[in-house]
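User: tokens in, sequence out, please.
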């Protein structure tokens, strides 16, 4: 096999299984090459990914080491994606009233959500975590993509417990501007005590739902090491949580003038 074809095949293996550790011996066995040749091929593959801004290949040394592909994004490309996100959201036809926007078509656009996920992956890739956690429903595609790219299990917190999930833990929390009491639950078998999680969701206004997620994770002594949100409302200014990263800020939705004020968060990286 020619080197160019071998490297293309190697790139397919790595990019098809993001954040999965491949040992050099795996490539030696597959392509019948020496470790020195495999190492050179990986270097060429890493250079190709870096120059095309598709991600990076991380090398882990030691007996249990190897290489893995992480689909990161450059700050310049992230800015383009954020602006595109704002442009798609800045459509008066999305206004639902009460300061809400229709976003389902965007949050279920898998190709676009993949680009949004790359921003979170770039930010969170060096964190030690055991899960990606979200609450149903619109945050699931984004959280699922982040989980896939980080090679982590996805845990979905339900609004109502499901019989098929067995024993659950439930809590009540305050959500929305009217501080309504709502409920969320998590299957006991979905997580392990004393672990760590990254929280991903599509939208946050006051932070009640996210605080609820943090609190239900605390029931299992799970540390929420990071929280990533696609859209955050500028109001209320005081949130119920004080540590999060978001992609765009929704400053205002004016139902009367049919105008939307939404801007990228420039302080991500």
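Assistant: Sequence out:
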């Amino acid at each position: 096999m020619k080197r160019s074809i071998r490297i293309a095949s190697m790139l397919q293996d790595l990019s098809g299984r993001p954040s999965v550790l491949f040992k050099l011996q795996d490539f030696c066995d597959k392509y019948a090459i020496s470790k020195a040749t495999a190492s050179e091929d990986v270097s060429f593959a890493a250079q190709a990914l870096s120059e095309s801004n598709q991600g990076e290949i991380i090398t882990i040394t030691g007996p249990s080491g190897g290489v893995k592909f992480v689909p990161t994004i450059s700050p310049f490309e992230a800015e383009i994606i954020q602006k595109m996100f704002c442009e798609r959201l800045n459509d008066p036809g999305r206004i639902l009233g009460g300061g809400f926007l229709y976003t389902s078509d965007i949050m279920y656009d898998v190709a676009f959500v993949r680009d949004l996920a790359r921003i979170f992956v770039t930010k969170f890739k060096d964190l030690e975590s055991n899960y990606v956690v979200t609450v149903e429903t619109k945050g699931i595609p984004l959280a699922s993509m982040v989980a896939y790219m980080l090679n982590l299990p996805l845990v979905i917190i339900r609004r109502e417990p499901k019989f098929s999930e067995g024993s659950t833990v439930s809590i009540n929390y305050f959500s929305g501007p009217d501080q309504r009491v709502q409920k969320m639950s998590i299957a006991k078998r979905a997580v392990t005590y004393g672990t760590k999680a990254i929280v991903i969701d599509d939208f946050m206004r006051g932070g009640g739902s996210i605080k609820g997620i943090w609190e239900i994770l605390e029931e299992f002594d799970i540390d929420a090491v990071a929280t990533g949100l696609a859209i955050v409302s500028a109001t209320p200014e005081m949130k119920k949580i004080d540590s999060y990263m978001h992609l765009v800020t929704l400053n205002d939705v004016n139902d009367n003038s049919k105008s939307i004020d939404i801007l990228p968060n420039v302080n991500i990286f």
